[in-house]
Design a protein that fits this description.
Number of helices: 13
Mean pLDDT: 93
Low-confidence stretches: none
Number of strands: 18
CATH superfamily of the largest domain: FAD/NAD(P)-binding domain
CATH class of the largest domain: Alpha Beta
Structural class: alpha/beta
Number of domains: 2
Distance between the termini: 36 Å
Helix content: 25-40%
């Protein structure tokens, strides 16, 4: 058995920022199923939203709750928005390089936003933030990261979390005793055949929570992104970011007709695309930037431009085939504004958690911000709580676990919970997508 003050499961933006915000006097261990960089945070293209001026608050708030179909928690939304300027400054202090123009920081606009308020680094904002956070984490002697180490279960005593059972790179099972456990494992995209997520992001923490009777929330709210590059190849779908439509790209049906306002919220655009695909009997529609300055495309969207080029399409001159795919999970393990779950000493942050900040549909570029705001809040509470948590090492019966059986078990637990809460969504997306 091994022990640590704080165990963080997951190395995306939420997990890394939480670790950085904990004092160096605490021992922090991080485990991740794959390589450290292979989190969905790393894939985030468009940018990170922020409150540009105090006068933008009402519009930003309304944009967020309108996109979320007014199912949002008002306190969560207010906390996220009002915390955003401080978070952005902290990122810049850590070396994150946001694009600038002659007036200072360069703000972009995306679907669902009433004005430009999104900071970005080219079209690889998530990678830029992840690289800088990881570099600082790696300098901290109190933080240890174990790659290819998978959480199999949590260890609990009644309603108190005591640690986890993990499978190491060498396929051995071990118990890790921890005063505090933080779940930062991301979404559920790996359960779907067509998703922008890494395939190993399969919602294990959510399934484990359900099996332990930990409260979960809004698991029926699964976001389908309207524009991913259409391909028949297996594996993760390449995201054609909201930023592309923010730079005035238009959606066209097979007849070359524009059929929707591209800057509407994601679920509305997705529904419009599905309607056109059904009407024409196709598996995709087209995205066009043929009217946009090619030099602007190559500077603003270099990663997307290069990917399309490798697939045989020039984003500046060709119509790009796009199709909807699973993208984000608004539901998750129920938490308060500081990441506390219904189990004592167990926290959840990032996409695996749910404080209803996104409501029923996430507004573009709010995900990185959410992860940073609420993981920092969790770290503050954890710092206060750890001294009062006694060391009570516990062991688990490792022979009772059969890791090879768990992926399918966890998958069924999650999909069955989605079906129970929203059979219509399940029938439309899960039966032929999982």
């Amino acid at each position: 058995m091994e022990k640590t003050d704080v165990l963080i499961v997951g190395t995306g933006v939420a997990g890394l920022f939480c670790a950085l915000k904990l004092p160096e006097s605490l021992t922090v261990r991080m485990i991740t199923k794959d390589e450290t960089e292979n989190s969905d945070s790393y894939l985030a293209q468009g940018g990170i939203s922020t409150l540009k001026t105090p006068g933008d608050y009402d519009d930003y708030y309304e944009d967020t709750v309108r996109a979320g179909h007014y199912k949002n928690n008002p306190d969560s939304v207010e906390t996220m928005i009002r915390s955003s300027p401080r978070i952005i400054q902290e990122l810049m202090d850590l070396g994150v390089d946001f694009e600038r123009n002659e007036d200072g920081l360069s703000y972009a606009r995306e679907g669902g936003h009433s004005q430009a308020r999104i900071l970005h680094h080219k079209d690889i904002t998530g990678q830029e933030i992840m690289d800088k956070l990881l570099a600082h984490v790696q300098k901290r002697s109190n933080i240890r990261i174990d790659e290819f180490t998978k959480m199999i279960d949590i260890i609990s005593d009644g309603n108190t979390c005591k640690g986890v059972v993990a499978q190491t790179r060498g396929k051995e099972l071990q118990t890790i005793s921890a005063k505090i456990v933080v779940l930062a494992t991301g979404g559920i995209g790996g359960l779907f055949r067509h998703s922008t997520n890494f395939k190993h992001i399969t919602g294990d923490a959510l399934a484990i929570a359900i099996l332990h009777g930990i409260e979960v929330q809004d698991v029926q709210y699964v976001q389908i992104h309207p524009t991913t590059f259409y391909s028949k190849d297996p594996g993760r779908r390449f995201l054609i970011s909201e930023a592309v439509r923010g730079e005035s790209a238009v959606l066209l049906n097979p007849d070359g007709e524009r059929f929707v306002d591209e800057l509407l919220p994601r679920d509305v655009v997705t529904a419009a695309i599905k309607k056109e695909m059904k009407k024409y009997g196709t598996e995709f529609v087209y995205l066009s930037m043929q009217h946009v300055d090619p030099d602007k495309i190559k500077v603003r969207l270099p990663n997307i431009y290069q990917y399309c080029l490798e697939q045989g399409y020039d984003l500046a001159t060709d119509k790009i085939p796009v199709t909807p795919a699973q993208h984000y999970f608004m539901g998750g393990i129920k938490v308060d504004l500081c990441g506390r779950t219904s189990m004592k000493n167990l926290f959840a942050v990032g996409e695996t958690s749910c404080n209803r900040v996104h409501g029923a549909n996430r507004l573009g570029s709010n995900s990185l911000l959410e992860s940073l705001v609420f993981s920092q809040a969790a770290a503050k509470v954890i710092t206060q709580d750890v001294p009062s948590v006694p060391w009570e090492p516990v062991e688990a019966d490792l022979k009772a676990y059969h890791p090879e059986e768990l992926p399918e078990k966890y998958k069924r637990v999650i999909l069955d919970e989605i079906k129970r809460r929203d059979g219509k969504f399940y029938e439309q997306w899960c039966n032929d997508e999982d």
